[in-house]
Amino acid sequence: MSVPDALPWGAGVALAAALGVVFGSFIATLVLRWPSDRSVLGRSQCDGCGRPLGARDLVPLLSAMLMRGRCRRCGAPIDPFHGRVELASGLIGTGALALMPGVTGWLWALFGWLLLPLALLDARHFWLPDRLNALLAIAGLLFAGPLLDTTLGDRWIGALAGGGSLALAAWSYRRWRGMEGMGGGDPKLVAAIGAWLGWQALPLMLLLASLGGIGWALAAQRKGDPPLAEQRVPFGVFACAAAFAAVPLWPLISGL
Predict the structure, then answer these.
(1) How far apart are CA 1 and CA 58, in angstroms?
(2) CA torsion sign, 148 to 150 to 155 to 157?
(3) Of residues 94 and 255, more confidently modeled
(4) Mapping DSSP to helix (H, G, I), strand (E, B) and coil, where does residue 70 land?
(5) Of the residues 101, 121, 137, which one is the last residue of a structural domain?
(6) How many domains does the chain have?
(7) What pTM was estimated for this model as a whole?
(8) Which of 53, 160, 225, 254 could cross-link to 44 by cystine, CB 3.0-4.6 Å?
(9) 181 and 80 both lie in a single domain
């Protein structure tokens, strides 16, 4: 029996929650700094006064609560984005280990933690960095077999089919409409997701992501907005959410 499988249910959930908020702190920093070419690994400091932050200022969730959301020295407000991402990341770990104890749950949590920065960067900047897509794909090919009981061949086919199908859709749209209909990072993201889910669950993920994107575009459309076909939709957000949701849904649908 592996160590993750040997952990009691409650201990696994608590550990995943704790690791989640820690990872969430780094993810929030990455999302805030990387697009502006700031060092992700540099020492954290207050955005108001520039004071370097000590260990007691950097405890995820707890420090901001104790300081009432403001810098200890200058009183400048702390960006609530940090706490929201830490909470979301903690919930990913909590939910994964609560629903799927053991190795499968830890793999699902890891999948969610790798998807989270991609979803946030696409939501805020319409950007899906190649390096994060590559990290997601490599991790899937190396480790994701037990997640949905897929072989390495299944995951390679999923990566090639996922990336290829979206690249073909983007090329067809460009030929048909004479304009870009999809960002260059979207096919790479779906390829990386295919490396986790395998080819079998990929159609479910694409269906959920497409429905989510269409629903969001319809709900957000206002009078005077460009036609639906010309609206920018952060498809990566919906692809990441659909990929995470497909992990528990696919076994239910397929009867695995």
Answers:
(1) 36
(2) negative
(3) 94
(4) strand
(5) 101
(6) 2
(7) 0.90
(8) 53
(9) no
